[in-house]
Amino acid sequence: MAQCVQSVQEFVQDSFVPMVAVLCSEEAERVTRKNNLNFAELLRPFCRLTSEGHIRDPSNQLQVVKNLRICVNNLVTSPTTTSTSLSPAQRQLLSDVVSSCQPQESAVTNVVMAGDYELNFSVTTPWFEAYRENFLQSMPASDHEFLNHYLACLLVVSSTEAVPVEQFLKLSQEQHRIQHSGEYTNPKWFIPNTLKYYVLLHDMCEGDEQRADVVYEDMKQKYGSQGCYLLKMNSRTFSANVDEQIPDPWSQYLHKNNLHNQFPHNPCTSSSYFSGCINSGTILYYVRLFMANLHNLSAVHTDLKKGAKDSNSPACAAGSHGACLTLNDHDYIRQFIQEFTFRGLLPHIEKTIRQLNDQLVSRKGLSRSLFTATKKWFGGGKAPEKSISEPKSTCGLLYPPEAPELQIRKMADLCLLVQHYDLAYSCYHTAKKDFLSDQAMLYAAGALEMAAVSAFLQGGASRPYPAHYMDTAIQTYRDVCKNMVLAERCALLSAEILKSQGKYSEAATLLIKMTSEDSDLRSALLLEQAAHCFINMRNPMVRKFAFHMILSGHRFSKAGQRRHALRCYCQAMQVYKERGWSLAEDHINFTIGRQSFTLRQPEEAVTAFRQILINDSRQTAKQQGAFLREYLYVYKSVLGGNEVSLPQLPLPCIHSSATRVYFGHERRLAEGEKQAATHVSLDQEFDQDLSAMWCHLEEQLVASANGGVVPVNFQPTQCCLNSQTDNLRHPLAVVEEPIIVEVTFRNPLKVSLALSSLSLLWRFTVDGSSSSKEMTEETITNEETSAVGVGNMNKYALRNCDLFSPFRNHMDFLLFTDQQTLDLMVRGKQDLNILGPRLNLTKEDKMSVRHGPDRRLNPIITAPMPLMEVFFLQFPTALLCGEIRKAYVEFCNVSGVALCGLRVVSTHAAFFTFGSQATTPLSPTSAENCSPYKTVATPLQRASEATESLVSADDFRQPSGVIEIPIDGSILQPGQSTQLPLWLRGPDQEGVHEINFLFYYESAEKGLKISHRVLRHTVFICASRSLSIQASACRSSVPPHHCLDEKGSSGTLVFIDVENINTNEGGVREFHIVQVSSSSQHWRLHKYINPNKDKECKLGSRERAKLCFRAIFSEHEFHSSVSYGSQGSVPTENRSSDLTDIAKECSELDLNIIVIWKAYVVEDNKQLILEGQLHVALQTIGKEATSLTAKEVPQEMVLLKFKSDLPPPVILPSAEFCQLIKTNLHYPETCTHPFVQESLCLVPVTLTLSNCSLAQVDVIIDLRHKSSSPESLEVHSSFAWVGQSQYKLQLKPKEVLCLTLQACFLQAGVYNLNTPRVFAKPSEQSIMCETSQQTATPALIVISNA
What range(s) does the TPPC8 second Ig-like domain occupy (predicted)? Predict the structure, then answer.
């Protein structure tokens, strides 16, 4: 349970105090009303004695009475009978008591650490203490116990009465009539001979003090000095000491509001009742007043009417209490209470105890003292015989007032009231046995209850607290007697006692058992106290605390205590929040929202409903829709018509880190034949490797523009910022260019949200300004999106465009939106707060969670910059390897600033080059300009000799990769555009190639914050196979005197193998070798050795051609070419980058071979001619070079597979398959050839194929194989098969086929012709097997030099 202001002993002791009634004359009541008090209220602050009292028990032992408090009440009669439950008026009174007592904002809070829970809640519960105190004091007097019965009656008469003694007599007779006439069941009296104490009240301001003393002397003579008292009061006058401050001890006992505010519904409370000077009263007093006489307030009503005569007095008008009393009067009242108690009340109680003891002893025939009673008497004798006609009740036997058992109970109650707990326990224990033996269960439960209280209050005694007595009493009250009022009192006492002993679990169990459906308020308060018991245990039970707080809040809500219900739910929320209890958390937040809205706390209601929506709820879609409607309704009521300051919207959720910011215009789409540069767009996903590649290209461009040095302050251009880019610096935006912000929304609910009028809000700070301000639409224009619906995850690009001031701006972007569901629509905003990367450098960063800055939403606006757009015309998507194609590129300056320094760099520098602007045709579609070469007539010389041209040494320098774009004047004015031809050459490797261009340009104005701008473009080219070129060089063996070279140099022989590896891809029919050129600083092709004379070289599919040239050394730098036919081709553009871009420095040979070809293609029933060139770099004599680079085959990912039981069997070809075909070569055994005149010797060879089977056979003959058998290694193998390199045939059963081949020899020697590989299979089979004739005896041929 929560902590209380009083200790447990003080609380229990103050729950049972002697009761004293007050009966005043009308004149005495008038005297006291001067202080806005009646006589009982006047005495209440002084009813606790500060000094000790003494009494003697029946054994003449002196007992000390400490800290005694008496209860003084006005005597009010009531004909009502006692009830086992509270009446509606009583319930309402207790409800108002609890409602009026709310937790203070500055109340002490307790922080409980239990595991990873940190709970903060109020230490005390004053509303529960107020309820408990009012409940205990409002309990009606009952017949089975005497604790609430009056022991004495104060008869008060004013000294201003004509004959005070007669007034005392009238009051005495009135008291006797009330007690003994039988007309009234309430109030109840302890004994028939009630103590009457006569009080003479003297007003110091009005009465005659001497007369008062005379009257008092007569009273002492008549009633004795111990039975009367003269009380002087009202010593203070208003004419003097006006400014004197007198303390007001009544304020803590009297309620600040009048009774009308507490009980407006009670019919007994008339308007005149509240019109008197008593405009306030204590809750405790009025509770007793109403419970004692709820339906008959005539006496009080009469007294208040009499007091209304003085309603115009200064004291009454002042509204304060005790205004006519001085501090001496306070002492007089305190002395009066002490005299009454010590000289009147305690002696009367002592006398009554002795009389009861004597009666009990005489009736039982036992000894004179209860302490010397025998064990038989204490153990209880035989039950007294009762007549059949004695009354019964549902609780058992009803005793008459003179029954000995009730006398024992009276004696026990008196001992308890004067703190004689040992004797009280003995009496209660004895009475309990008698009651149980008579089956008087109500009396027995009361005796058990008070026996347990007496045992606890003994303090320091060896007797432990009998908790089982309390449990039995509670069960009897509740289940047998059906009296929940007494059961509740018993539970309240026992729970406090158990709590004081640290038995929080037992106390919580007891409180929970007392909850029921008959009283929501009682159940709520007890459940709250049970929750406090769980949290105050040695090992706090946090979840039980929260669960019972939820139950308490629910019952508070049913009882109409909304503030207390809200407090309970808020305290429980500390346990359930962010713990994974999503459904419980939703319920708590929903309840908090509703209670807050009902209590007119709309902001708290919005916060609670917001929590339901932003969490990942597991509610059904219907329930989520209900939550959303509640939130929107509350939100709309909070917003009202004021939309100046928009509150935050919880939905949809913004994935802030995924926000992307794009600076600049969006890419223009293709227009007709034009293809715009791809650049950067929001549709492209960020790739770290690509970003590094673009950064490297930009560094090359910047270095080229700055003399080969990259500036120290260089920062790569970032057009689109996201979570993976470097956002530590403020991005730079350009005036009059848009800023596009892409926001990612997530809808955590299962219901759709309709959003409309989405726009961006910003804050603009002018450079040098001390404060930020909201800019008008003249500075920044904004585009709104149309209405959209948000499902699970959506992205929207919000445009915030056209900033017209070239100042620095600090832009805190917000999202402004309309949100609606069904018929509710609200307006609000959401902040775009982006956390930077987590810091992990210092120790403090690693020990805590710190984030760096992210400034992607805080751009700096700079001065105008040029803006260029690039378009491509006739740009192909597919090329043959080495194919040369002409396209056009157009540069447009779409800004108002001139641009210059136009450059470009690419990842494939050999892919393109720019043509001259002078040769650019007016119409790009002119067919005559589509060829990259000029066709010219060759000079009059031998066809086999080469055409030579000298070139400068500068043309052989390796290009840097950065190309300056040749435009007129090197400046592109605003609105100006220009076109340039762009020569493209297909990549040497087949496949799809990604080629990236980065264009660079600067502003004509220098000193701007942005030094340059770049434009990206990415194309994909599909390269198809064309020709494969293999070249090798060897020293010539021709004697010097046979050489026609004027310098006498024997030279070097260059052999070039050209193979058509295109398999009719792209409709290619055949290739023509147009020209072979060389480019070298010291070597040149001098002569073409052509065995077919001037026959044109044509290559069909899979055909090969072998070319032989003589190259000679020279001191000059040459470009030479050998043409086929009568015409030759030279490059249109005299730019050596097309010819020497793959040349590499070598030590022995520096010869670059360029083979120019034409391809005849059929496309859409039209024949086209494609042109291209392939390059081979010969570096070392005797080492073969090829135009095809080795293709890297990526290692495939090995997928996880279940291991099979048995591996699949390996199927080997059978012997019959290997004997399907027999082969035979027919050729001359010897051949003589003049190698000096003709370098190549061609020998015809016939290959005979015989089908030995009775089935149709598919045959493949591959001539590219070079034998590696041991026999063939002994003979020369440097020959080649000329012509088609592969044949696919089909032989019928028993068919013999002869195939004519040609073998080409370069020098004399012995050669093995048995190199063709023959594969055969039956037509219906899928396995191709090589025949066994491949490994037969070598077929040798001898070649001699003539």
Answer: 881-1015
